[in-house]
Amino acid sequence: MASETPLRLPVIDFSKQDLKPGYPEWDSVKTQVRRALEDFGCFEALYDKAPLELRKAVFGGLEQLFDLPLETKMLNVSEKPSHAYIAPHPNAPLYESIGIEDPNVAENVDSLTNSFWPQGNTSFSKSVQFIVEQVSELERMVRRMILESFGLEKYMDEHMNSTKYLLRAMKYKAPHTTEKTLGSRDHTDKNIVTVLCQGIEGLEIQMKDGEWITAKPDSLTVMIGDSLYAWLNGRLHTPHHRVMMRGHKSRYSFGLFSNPKGGYIINAPEELVDEEHPLMFKPFDFDKFLEFFHSDAARKTQSAFQTFAVSNSNLVIKIWS
Ligand SMILES: O=C(O)CCC(=O)C(=O)O
Ligand SMILES: [Fe+2]
């Protein structure tokens, strides 16, 4: 008989007082993180330093932001693909997003805010800065726990210093349907770790058995991306996920993405490579992969990561077993 309880992602509580390396609480949360990322590639984090009211303030600001004229939103530019404004597209008509590179640098948030609102919008920039500060602290705790759980402490500084943040904020227009409609297609993230905050439900994560679970908007969803999967030589799972919409409400969400810095070569540590776990990926530069991912060649493929792996053998090669 089918279970009555709806499936839910593992929920991990990061709100405890003594959550510092070396404390018993830390070790207990670390064990839960490792297990969740092996089994699901993601989990829901309870984190009272990023309370719901604070996230609501950001969503309120995003509503105003996405209401700005298209030409204003197009002032959000970047040299990198998928780091700037993305307008609704025939393949994803409900979706649009903006990006803020290095959002942990206050001036970057201020300057984007001022380009959108020349008269200023301090409450928007302050709430974004504060949420980024809190969520990035959680993101770093998770990565520290992951490295410790694999006994990779000696790589901690190198790993932490080789990443930078991108904040992407999304709007999904209400589809005005009763049936679920695709808001964002099924994908894996390409980066290291993503922390997602959603205003209303819509994010769905695929389990290893193919079933989809809906992530709850009252917690933060933490998931790992392909670059961390590659660096850990496949030890954790990278989950497929998508956004499904229905009804008459627009949905706002934002994600803090830790990305490998351009020029940094992702290379699995020797501790994770042995006879039982042969090297899956040759060293690669994340920015080169991103370039490929946004090329016409990649669009024609089923999995850009795998195609990149076999077709650009000088950059990264997946050793198929
Ligand atoms: O809007 C969401 O909840 C998910 C967005 C997402 O998966 C992404 O930006 O990679
Ligand atoms: Fe994603």
UniProtKB/TrEMBL annotation:
Q: Which UniProt keywords apply?
A: Dioxygenase, Iron, Metal-binding, Oxidoreductase
Q: Name one Pfam family in it.
A: DIOX_N
Give any GO molecular function from the UniProt entry: dioxygenase activity
The Fe2OG dioxygenase domain sits at: 163-260
- PROSITE patterns (alphabetical): FE2OG_OXY
Q: Does the keyword Metal-binding apply?
A: yes
Write out the similarity annotation: Belongs to the iron/ascorbate-dependent oxidoreductase family.
Question: What's its job?
Answer: Probable 2-oxoglutarate-dependent dioxygenase that may be involved in glucosinolates biosynthesis. May play a role in the production of aliphatic glucosinolates.
Q: Which protein is depicted?
A: Probable 2-oxoglutarate-dependent dioxygenase AOP1
Q: Which organism is it from?
A: Durio zibethinus (Durian)
What gene makes this protein? LOC111278349
